[in-house]
Amino acid sequence: MDQAKLDQQSQHWEENFSNKPEMFGLEPSYSAKKALEIFKEKKINNIVDLGAGLGRDSVFFAKNSINVLAIDNSFNAIKIINKKIQKLNLSKFVTTKVIDIRNKLPFEDCSIDAFYSHMLYCMALTNSEIVNLNREIHRVLKPDGINFYTVRNTSDGDYKKGIHRGENLYENDGFIVHFFSEEKINQLLNGFKNIQIEIFEEGSFPRKLFCVYNKKI
């Protein structure tokens, strides 16, 4: 495990967000549409978007009257989100914060209704960092709170391609991705009940992902 290489990913993302401010497009992800259905069904109006990136899903939730705290490790990403929500007059629904999710989450125990994250878990995080993040999410979720996340899975075309960076981490085109099996997802169920795991694809490559819907127990 080359921790220095993993740590350099934050700067790599900063540069890409700065140079490609619409690198993921403007349309909401499939997972955001699925999550919105659940939030509406459960009457959840306040969520945290972890690893919000350039904000396409945060904006989508806000347009559907969901209050969003958009969190990312990238200062450039948060600047871009702030510009978007001001332009779209969504400041009433979206607040932003720069946070390194490898540290303790800045929330009180049992204080958050739901977390949403699209491909955050499969960033350049070690197994222990993923376990710690999942534990922190569990700590701050309210009873029966929802953790809805997506990860690239081991059927993805980039899995075991490029440079192996340790564990299930592989680097392709400068980006290090942590790939997930269904077994790994189930290993993260400590304190959670899985409601649904769905397989879906995204992009022209395409990326192959799991969409995971867990409830705190």
Overall structural class, as computed from helix and strand content, comes to alpha/beta
Question: Roughly what fraction of the amino acids lie in strands?
Answer: 25-35%
> Please, how many domains?
1
Query: Main β-sheet, in a few words?
Result: 7 strands, mixed
- Mind telling me the CATH class? Alpha Beta
Regions with little confidence, pLDDT below 50 for 5+ residues: none
Calculate Rg over CA atoms: 16 Å
The CATH topology name reads Rossmann fold
Quaternary class: single chain
Count of runs of 4 or more consecutive helical residues: 7
Q: Tell me the distance between the termini.
A: 33 Å
Task: Give the strand tally.
Answer: 10
Query: Architecture in CATH?
Result: 3-Layer(aba) Sandwich
In helices, the fraction of residues equals: 25-40%
Mean pLDDT across every amino acid position? 94
Say which CATH homologous superfamily is assigned: Vaccinia Virus protein VP39
Helix/strand order: HHHEHEHEEHEEEEHEE
Give, in spatial order, the strands making up the sheet with the most strands.
3-2-1-4-5-10-9
General shape: globular
